[in-house]
Specification:
Layout: H1 2-76, H2 78-90, H3 94-105, E1 111-118, E2 123-126, H4 128-134, E3 137-141, E4 145-149, E5 155-163, E6 167-174, H5 175-182, E7 193-198, E8 203-205, H6 218-223, H7 230-240, E9 245-251, E10 263-274, E11 277-286, H8 287-390, H9 396-422, E12 431-434, H10 435-448, E13 454-460, E14 466-469, H11 471-489, E15 495-505, E16 521-529, H12 536-539, H13 559-569, E17 573-579, E18 583-591, E19 613-617, H14 621-633, E20 637-641, H15 644-653, E21 658-662, H16 670-680, E22 685-690, H17 695-702, E23 708-711, H18 716-727
Parallel strand pairs: 13-15, 19-20, 19-21, 21-22, 22-23
Antiparallel strand pairs: 1-2, 1-6, 3-4, 4-5, 5-6, 7-8, 7-11, 9-10, 10-11, 12-14, 15-16, 16-18, 17-18
Helix pairs in contact: 1-8, 2-3, 8-9, 8-14, 10-11, 11-13, 14-18, 15-16
Length: 729
């Protein structure tokens, strides 16, 4: 019992220490958040104050520029021009003065009056109110901005425009009225205000009339000699240089000048451009007063936090005992779950390893089969192709040779499908495909898999248009769509499948198929069936990988996903429309190439190459003999080797225009021989024959070490045609 009490006591002490630690961390976190929030508020206040200063400066510029525009109109008016010439010629300024008085009467109270000054700044004539200022002190001057002060200390801004290079027309604006209109109503919190100064630091507008008319630093220094103006002077110096900014500095409460206690202030300032001079617009507020509400809220918050932590500590003590009693049960359950999870993970890894081994075995087996079949099919296709070129049209042997060649082509397609299982191909060759021939091939393949209860209708009008793509992949798309349509029809007696193809403008594409840049026409093939249709809730998921509407074991859910991926890789799109119980229509859109499909040149069209010397390398004597014979008949001077090392030695001592080499050879890969040949003869043309598109072949072509690669089985005519293209470049 005592041991249990000691244990509970030690745990209570530990829990109390933990609560205190958490409370301290929480308070520190709150303080950190508070200071971050305070900085955010200060930044926002600075931005707001600077925005207010800029707004007031813009208003002043617009305000004064508006009067400058009016004065420009007045200076050009007929009354002013006549009065001015009368004054300059006869000395009679009554007409000119009447014109200025008339202008002043129709303007608001801001316009104190108009006057005319000479180039020395002396008063010549003007309205009665303007004379009270202009005949007295000019406090500050610039080329086109004047500041006038009367005996009572009131200030006016004078806007000057030159008049025939002899006089200046000056419009006097009442500063107090301008301040009432522009900045007097602006308040920043409880203690903020807007003040306006001249570019030399003279205070023109201020909420306190005592401050108007004195220099922002020197005038106050005279009044209050015992105060420190160091920071205020530094800020004022930046303002006089026409800078825009925000400063925090120590100053005094000028609204209560008797208070000699320093006050921290926040000031945002910016210049208001006025022709060749500027005013300084300042928005000022008390720094401490701005933050006072935040500090007050922080004190209340800390008090609440302490109370919450105090209550939480008591609750924690109660929960601690319950937690200890449940911990043992939780640990036992966790141990059992970990053991169970480990067993499941081990089982899953074993299945994954077995699956990977099966795929690796299949890939290795299919890759080897494809390589051997390609080596067998190459001489079959090559020799049958040469026979077709030499035998007359009416020969029975030509028909036999055609059957051999056609069967070899079908075997080539089967091998290409097998190579997809080997996972060794790093890419697909895109060629120009005749859509008309593709539609004929689609019809032929579809009829071969069509059940008796389904009729097929094919209507395709593509002329000689073509697309740039991979024929095997596009055929796979068609087979997937046709197989899905036949599956949807099922055993329906009057099943019907329609394949309709046509050309269309890119502007007619549906919204879900984005047009491809540079292509103005598209080919569309629609596959329509009268099967069971697809439910609306399933339509949006129809192209998801592994999603299928078929029963378990009847589909993988990859067909439509692969079809969409292939079509999009060709720059097109695929759409689906379906009505349950009526049927489904899939539409495939492919961009039409700008180049028409043309026939390759025949053997008779290939010009003489003057017995261009080429080297042919292949370790299979049947293929080597076929290539040597076929290329010799095409007009090339052929030197053949069954060993790549012998070919490399030959290239070191003899000039050759081109090298045709097999890729997979036991002693040396064809790519290695290509690198050696390029080093010996940099200008040689190199073609690699391969059954699979290996990565190093693609890389060497990209690096321009080899010029091209051709897939086995291959015809001598294809090799000759590609050699001709390369040698003529």
């Amino acid at each position: 019992m005592k041991k249990k009490m000691k244990l509970l006591t030690s745990r209570a002490v530990l829990a109390s220490a933990l609560v205190i630690l958490i409370m301290l961390v929480g308070i520190l976190r709150i303080l950190s958040t508070f200071f971050e929030f305070q900085q955010t508020i200060i930044s926002q206040q600075e931005e707001q104050m600077l925005a207010v200063s800029k707004s007031v400066a813009s208003s002043i510029s617009i305000y004064i520029n508006g009067y400058l525009s009016d004065m420009t109109v007045l200076r050009s008016s007929e009354e002013f021009v006549k009065g001015y010439w009368q004054f300059t010629q006869t000395g009679d300024g009554s007409a000119l003065k009447d014109c200025l008085e008339e202008y002043t009467e129709v303007r608001p109270s801001t316009v104190t009056g108009l006057c005319l000054l000479n180039n020395n700044g002396r008063y010549v004539l003007g309205t009665a109110q303007a004379a009270q200022y202009a005949k007295r002190t000019i406090e500050h001057t610039s080329t086109q901005m004047l500041y006038f002060k009367d005996d009572a200390g009131s200030y006016c801004i004078g806007i000057a425009l030159p008049v025939y290079q002899e006089h200046w027309l000056v419009c006097l604006l009442n500063i107090s009225d301008m301040y009432q209109r522009i900045g007097s109503d602006i308040r920043m919190g409880t203690s903020g205000y807007v003040m306006i100064m001249a570019s030399n630091g003279l205070i023109l507008m201020h909420p306190s009339s005592r401050e108007v008319g004195i220099d922002v630093v020197e005038g106050r220094r005279i009044r209050y000699a015992d105060r420190d103006f160091t920071e205020l002077a530094a800020v004022a110096e930046r303002q006089k240089h026409g800078e825009t900014g925000v400063d925090v500095y120590w100053s005094y409460d000028w609204m209560r000048p008797s208070n000699a206690k320093p006050v921290r202030k926040l000031c945002a300032y910016t210049p208001a451009p006025l022709r060749d001079d500027f005013m300084i617009v300042c928005t000022v507020t008390d720094y401490a007063a701005m933050l006072q509400p935040l500090h007050s809220s922080m004190r209340h918050m800390l008090g609440d936090v302490v109370m919450v932590f105090a209550g939480a500590s008591g609750l924690l003590m109660i929960l601690l005992y319950l937690q200890n009693s449940r911990r043992r049960v939780a640990e036992e359950n966790r141990t059992l779950r970990e053991v169970n999870s480990s067993l499941e993970e081990l089982h899953a890894r074993e299945e994954q390893i077995q699956h990977s081994q099966r795929l690796q075995t299949i890939g290795t087996l299919t890759g080897g089969i494809a390589h051997e079949f390609n080596n067998l099919l190459t001489p079959i296709m090559g020799y049958s192709g040469m026979m077709l070129q030499t035998l007359p049209e009416d020969s029975m042997l030509r028909e036999d040779a055609q059957e051999i060649y056609t069967s070899a082509e079908k075997a080539k397609e089967i091998i290409q499908q097998i190579t997809m299982l080997s996972r060794k191909s790093v890419g697909h060759t895109f060629t120009q495909i005749d859509l008309g021939k593709l539609s004929q091939r689609v019809e032929k393949i579809t009829r071969s898999i069509l059940p008796q209860n389904v009729t097929l209708e094919v209507r395709c009008a593509f002329d000689h248009a073509g697309v740039l793509g991979n024929e095997t992949q596009l055929t796979q798309v068609v087979l997937n769509l046709c197989a899905n349509a036949i599956g949807a029809i099922g055993t329906k007696e009057d099943g019907h499948l329609a394949i309709v193809g046509e050309l269309m403008d890119a502007a007619r594409l549906p919204n879900m198929v984005p047009p491809r840049e540079g292509y103005s026409r598209y080919a569309v093939m629609q596959f329509s069936d009268n099967g069971c249709g697809i439910e609306p809730r399933l339509l949006e998921r129809i192209f998801e990988p592994f999603f299928t509407t078929k029963k378990a074991g009847q589909g993988t859910g990859l067909g439509l996903s692969l079809a969409q991926s292939i079509v999009e890789s060709h720059g097109g799109g695929i759409t689906v429309e379906s009505t349950q119980g009526v049927g489904t229509t899939f539409a495939v859109y492919l961009p039409v190439s700008n180049e028409n499909v043309t026939l390759q040149p025949t053997a008779e069209e290939i010009p003489d190459l003057d017995r261009a010397p080429i080297v042919v390398v292949d370790n299979d004597p049947r293929i080597l003999r076929m290539l040597e014979r076929g290329l010799t008949e095409k007009g090339y001077s052929v030197t053949s080797f069954d060993h790549p090392a012998k070919a490399a030695e030959y290239l070191r001592g003899h000039f050759c225009a081109a090298l045709v080499t097999d890729y997979s050879m036991p002693d040396m890969l064809g790519t290695n021989l290509a690198v050696i040949a390029r080093g010996i003869q940099p200008g040689i043309r190199i073609i690699v024959l391969t059954g699979l598109i290996e990565r190093d072949i693609v890389e060497l072509k990209h690096r321009e070490i080899i010029d091209d690669y051709l897939l086995k089985p291959i015809l001598c005519e294809e090799v000759s045609r590609r050699l001709l293209q390369l040698l003529q470049v």
